[in-house]
Amino acid sequence: MEDGLFPRDRAEIAPGAVHVPDWLDLDAQRELLAACREWARPPAGLRTVRTPGGGAMSVRQVCLGWHWAVVPRCPNCGKSVRENPQCPGWHWYPYGYARTVVDGDGAPVKPFPPRLDRLARDAVARAYGRPAGAEAYDIALVNFYDADARMGLHRDSDERSDAPVVSLSLGDSGIFRFGNTEGRHRPWTDLELRSGDLIVFGGPSRLAYHGVTRIIPGTAPAGLGLTGRLNITLRVSGLAPGP
Ligand SMILES: O=C(O)CCC(=O)C(=O)O
Ligand SMILES: [Fe+2]
């Protein structure tokens, strides 16, 4: 939202959890949105996530997987990305990772573009004022929220790495609830995430409960061309690349 009367400041909302307002400018937001639209196409496109209890998440999601700079050959078929750009990556489903869209169309997950690793590292450096660690970011979850969608309090705990989670917002604002590591109860902080905002959470907050309580329709920047909210969450899997 470009009401911009008062600049919003970088804020540490909990130890190791940092909010950087307006990190992506409008051009960078447009570029990321265009990429998300490509990733959302089938096969292995946007899907409704169903939890083991039978419920459906209101958020729709697409995942990207392998980081080809780190795993130059697919552990499944042994080919390089040039030989086979469709090799599987990491797909998140409740509650684990797979190389195909096991809870959707079964297609191989789209590769994780190395530029998202660079983006995640830049984000960590901006939020913490120090370089990111050695591990490469190799998971991207793209979440689409319509006006009624939300995401319940949960922890990002299916990874085997304590590298910070990087989260980017595009489109309509959302109310992000950031809680504690103990449970889905107070204390928590509610903050408005606007288009272009960055959140990084790591260290003592890496396993904190968090969620999105509501979307504020009609708040996307006029020049972006998105109705609803997109969130791009970047993570380090820490999962062995072997088959
Ligand atoms: O949409 C958001 O801001 C949060 C997304 C999230 O927590 C997740 O994908 O695990
Ligand atoms: Fe999360």
TrEMBL record:
Gene3D superfamilies: Alpha-ketoglutarate-dependent dioxygenase AlkB-like. The keyword Ubl conjugation does not apply. SUPFAM superfamilies: Clavaminate synthase-like. Keywords: Dioxygenase, Iron, Metal-binding, Oxidoreductase. It holds the Pfam family 2OG-FeII_Oxy_2. It comes from the Bacteria. One of its GO terms (molecular function) is dioxygenase activity. Residues 136-238 form the Fe2OG dioxygenase domain. Its cofactor is Fe(2+). This is Alpha-ketoglutarate-dependent dioxygenase AlkB. It comes from Streptomyces orinoci.
